Amino acid sequence: MVQSISTLLVLGASGDLASRLLLPALGQLLTRHPERPVRLVGAASDELTHAAWKSIVRASFASAEASGPAIDALLATTSYHTVDVTDSAALSNLLADCEGDPAIYFALPPAVTTLVCDALTDVTLPDGVKLALEKPFGVDEAGAVALNHKLAQLVPEEKIFRIDHFLGRSTVLNLLGLRFANRVFEPLWSNQHIARIDIIYDEQLGLEGRAGYYDKAGALVDMIQSHLLQVMAVVAMEPPSTLSAADVRDAKGLVLRATKLRGGSPKRSSRRARYTAGTVDEQVLGAYTDQPGVKPERDTETLAEVTVDINTWRWTGVPFTLRSGKALGQRRREIVITFKPAPHLPTGLEGRDDPSVLRIMLAPDEMALEININGPSDPRVLERASLTATFGPGQLLAYGEVLESLFDGDPALSVRGDTAVECWRIVAPVLTAWRDGTVPLDDYPAGTAGPADWAPLG
Ligand code: NDP
């Protein structure tokens, strides 16, 4: 079926996000779905010639091995405008160059995004226009409320796509399928049978020249406040009746509204650390504080850990620990669900009786259920076994799934305004305590599992 044209208007088209993530994903999406005609309009303050813009787009597409008739059609019609996107007249002109229901993608620094929202209040927006925003959604709870207010003056909430590429279609659908299409998991999915849940996103990569952004954000804001709380909401939510935006986002909202720091105090529920020089995967990495652009006095953490409670019948008493860091020895991206131990081990059985653990790995999407079974040599001696499965792979890059939802006008997996505010509310006491120095900043050599005295997770 031939679909009507969508225009993707990228504000900040010459930036890192656009060329490294957005455009390659667009190329891949169009290669897989050539029936979906898309016109691409780029805008930024960079003075790019039309030819230079085309070669940026072509290079981004090549990096995703994108080709075919839809790619050729897009390259023939794409345009680029050198403008200040905070200027209302410039925005009006840009929108005049768009066809169909345009999607405006704010690939801009957050402060500039706010100015563009102000400028758009003086612009007549086309019917059906959609707005796609990148994290961070505000810089704190009040900032997120203010941003929501500005956006609400422009378009209805269902036209606002607050992007979280961790909530790509395939990852979320895999989680929902595992939980809600099997009777074996859902009856156990509560404080009756689960002891703890850890959501871990450890990277081996260091700063990679992103000091300008990262040194102001740190691991807590970069990962936990945004992505990991969203993943937690999907892991902990009640079964939605449908996959509609209203049902999925309501279910996530209920979880986040019930979430509080464990023990009520950041001192008990959070830890932070920063990497010193070390060796990661045989590569020598300098200390974080020696990286160009880093201000050591900012005390930015490169490893953050926060434990929360979800105060509902289902979850009260189960600690959810969210952790993410850079320059760690091992790359780990997993949700680790540790069940309570068996209430009684029949006398006569011996060996391993560790609790069962379900590991759900993110990228690549795999799962492993670790259980105790009677060993092959002596059936009275228990041994550990792992039942593994691989989820259906995502057909698209994470940003391809994001763009597909945007073009489809389905905001189910994007972050609703109220939940963006909740995520700031949850971490606000931690941010204050860390700023005040109430929680010490530990250190760890790059390439290790973190500070030596931190108990390992999962
Ligand atoms: P960059 O600084 O690389 O790019 C910003 C872009 O905005 C540039 O094209 C810049 O043009 C343009 N710009 C800034 N001010 C104006 C203005 N007044 N008028 C016109 N153009 C302007 O940022 P990123 O691409 O890294 O990030 C963009 C957003 O994406 C941020 O919100 C970030 O948090 C988010 N993000 C980024 C990720 C990444 O890996 N890069 C990952 C996830 C989210 P010029 O250079 O000419 O000023």
UniProtKB/TrEMBL annotation:
It comes from the Bacteria. Coiled coil: none annotated. GO terms for cellular component: cytosol. One of its GO terms (molecular function) is glucose-6-phosphate dehydrogenase activity. GO terms for biological process: glucose metabolic process; pentose-phosphate shunt, oxidative branch. Residues 178-453 form the Glucose-6-phosphate dehydrogenase C-terminal domain. Substrate binds at residues 165, 203, 222, 326. Catalyzes the oxidation of glucose 6-phosphate to 6-phosphogluconolactone. This is Glucose-6-phosphate 1-dehydrogenase. It comes from Glaciibacter psychrotolerans.
